[in-house]
Amino acid sequence: MSTTASSDTSLKKGRLGVLGIVFFVVAASAPLVGMTGAVPVAIVAGNGAAAAGTYVLVGLILLLFSVGYARMSHSVTNAGAFFAYVGKGLGKTAGVGSAFASLVGYVTIQLAIYGFFGGLLALQAGILPWWAWSILGWIVVTGLSLLSVDVGAKVLGTLMVLELLSLIITAAAIFIKGGPEGIDFAASFSPANIFAGGFSGGAGIAIAFAFASFIGFEATAIYGEESKDPKRTVPRATYWAIGIITALFGFVSFAMVTGLGASKVIDGVVAAAGDNLENPAAVLFNLAGSYVGAWLPEIMGWLVVSSLFAGLLAFQNAASRYFFALGRGGVLPASLGKTNKAGAPQNGVVLTSAIALIVIVLFALLGLDGIGNLFFWMSAVTAVAIIFVEILVSLAIVAFFRKNGGANLWQGTISPILALVGLVIGEYLLMSRFNLLGGLAPSPEESGTAWALTPLGWVLVLSPFIAAVIGAIVATTSKSNKALTEDILS
């Protein structure tokens, strides 16, 4: 950030500690939603009982990424995080291109959650259609986002603790009772089972879903300017966030496998969720009811809603801070780089909310479904966008430390290169299985075929890359790039 920034172009400093940032990031990963939505699909369409080990594998890849990412935070403290990192390492043009791709990721994940939030409430509470519930949630999220960021952290913290407790209680009860076949570590964690079916088959599908479930952990650095001690807080929050998400997904998904029995876990998931997995949440809810008591699934049904709300608030904050950083940097209108009296990026919040409202209304007018269309389409785009930018960040970390020093061989070269390899494989799997993630195959028979997409599917899967090209062009041709240069490259 430029040292000449005025007070109304700076985020409120010293408002967040490690715990507050971790709350935002873990809430953004919406673990209860992942357990009820992604894990059952990863089991059936992917590698069965080894889906639990797949989540741990992906978590380890992202821990490798976090080594260089956390070390880079000592040199970059910017609300744009990813684009500032890429700009520092690969130059302004690449940085702005990555910023536009990141915006696609954060805007689409918020849209996806609005669709799931509204659709779930329409099913559970009725009364209103999905889009009306989404708009009610939109009103509350927008209001909270305009308050100081620590208010949002307190809200997220309360919701997240309840969510995590429900998952831990269920998993602990299953392990205590042992399940129908006992606890089988090899079925879930042996490399042979994790990679069964190969990258083009079951293992690849499970890895793609696992990568999609981790979206949001990278937001730790976005809150660097608002943290109490960025050089210490951001690295610690990054490691804690990835560690918690990895442990949680690995622990609970392994418990789900144990509760159903490793050898018949696929049949158990299908029996609970339906032949087409139309109700994947029933898998975890049934296990909670059987091993804990009928009262827990009732609570968990509403905690899924609160988990979605927490994710909405987290990604609203992330997207608005990206708009803020781009406005302050001279890429987007300068008005976006202003904060209100509470220290929140007011105009970034307003723009993020405006985009969400327009899309919700558009989908409603077209008669599209909140979950079947808005959620699945947008969440698939998010996964592709964020992994793409993480690839650029890994390259930028290597380039930055080679030019400037400040990191040892492990931090500046080995770990980011290892992460880069894993991320490139993950991106390929996400894109090649985009039809399965987004439900955009030309026909039901082609839903499991790699690279089989409708025209709309191709537009969506390529949108992050198109946005990156547009961003690079804007950076190259913009006349107002003095502040941008200072903000990213100083």
Task: Describe, in short, the structure shown.
With 490 residues, the protein is mainly alpha-helical. Helices cover 73% and strands 0% of the residues.
**CATH fold-level label:** Amino acid/polyamine transporter I
The CATH class designation is Mainly Alpha
Tell me the number of structural domains: 1
Tally the helices: what do you get?
20
* CATH superfamily (homologous) name: Amino acid/polyamine transporter I
CA radius of gyration is 21 Å
Termini Cα gap = 8 Å
Descriptive overview:
It is a single chain. This protein has a single domain, classed as Amino acid/polyamine transporter I, CATH 1.20.1740.10. α4 runs parallel beside α16 and α12 crosses α13. It contains 20 helices and no strands. By secondary structure, the protein is mostly helical.
Q: What structural keywords apply?
A:
globular; mainly alpha; 490 residues; Amino acid/polyamine transporter I; 20 helices
Detail the topology: elements first, then pairings.
Elements: H1 18-29, H2 31-47, H3 51-72, H4 82-90, H5 92-124, H6 130-145, H7 149-177, H8 185-189, H9 191-194, H10 202-213, H11 230-260, H12 265-273, H13 281-291, H14 295-329, H15 346-365, H16 370-404, H17 409-432, H18 434-438, H19 455-477, H20 482-489
